[in-house]
Amino acid sequence: MKYQNILAPIAAALTLTLAPLASHASLVLRITDGADTVSIQDGGALDNQPAPDAVGFTGSFKGWNLTTSVGTSGADPLAMHFTAFVVGDKSSGKIWLELTDTDLLAGLGLVGLSASGVGFAGNVGIQGSWAGYVDDSNALFGTATSVFSSSGFGAAGGTASVPLSDTYSASLVTSFDYGGSTTDSLQGSSFDVRMDVLSVAEPTSVALVGLALLGLGVARRRKDCLFRQ
User: Fold this and answer.
1) For residue 5, what are the contacts with CB-CB under 8 A and spacing of at least 6?
2) CA 174 → CA 22, 151, 193, distances in Å?
3) Residue 14: inside a domain, yes or no?
4) How far are the Cα atoms of 13, 16, 107 from residue 9, in angstroms, in the given order?
5) How far is 32 from 97, CA to CA, in rounded Å?
């Protein structure tokens, strides 16, 4: 028996486990102050990003001036990159800018994820936060499982291995609170947030690697026995 015949199905299964599966729905951007909300669909009337797998909005919302954009990589269905930039004053209050993607395929076993973010505040007293979530129910803007979150504008990030099955959603959430600003003038703030699938072998992948090595050993031993006969 040839090695290829033994290892071919194992290699195929291993490839499915290690590689992110390239399938997802359209990105949706949501802007809210807690009372009013506007949603921008990729390719919709308010989307100012003509490229596929990118959605953005530039304009005003409840006294805020906003510039937001996001792009995804075709090589990785969950290479989410969200840039949020807002301009407001002390009377602006608080605003949330959120991005979500649905119908992501989980593959087999645990999914390794990473999230990171860094921000800028134009004035002392402005508060900000960001977070990355996944949701096994595939809900729009679902927050069932936190990958990582951070309060403040300093660089931060983390990783998580999350048990997911079938399809799931992923979301990035940023918030800006200008209520504590020490000046009444207009000030800008921003967040640059990322989340993607880690290229790591989770337990299911490790088991398949072990199975592949076992199959290779069996095939080699059988070949040695044939040579001795």
Assistant:
1) none
2) 26, 10, 8
3) no
4) 6, 11, 16
5) 7
pLDDT tens profile 136-181? 999 999 999 999 999 999 878 999 999 998 899 999 999 999 999 9
What type of residue is 73? S
Structure tokens at 117: 């973010």
The residue range of the domain holding 28 is 23-199
Report the number of distinct structural domains present in the chain: 1
CATH number for position 38: 2.60.120
Domain for residue 165, yes or no?
yes
Domain annotation covers residue 218: no
Burial class (CB in 10 A: 0-12, 13-18, 19+), 71: middle
The answer to whether position 215 is within a domain reads: no
Backbone dihedral angles phi then psi of residue 33, each to the nearest 5 degrees: -110, 15
For residue 207, CA distances in Å to 108, 162, 214 come to: 12, 18, 11
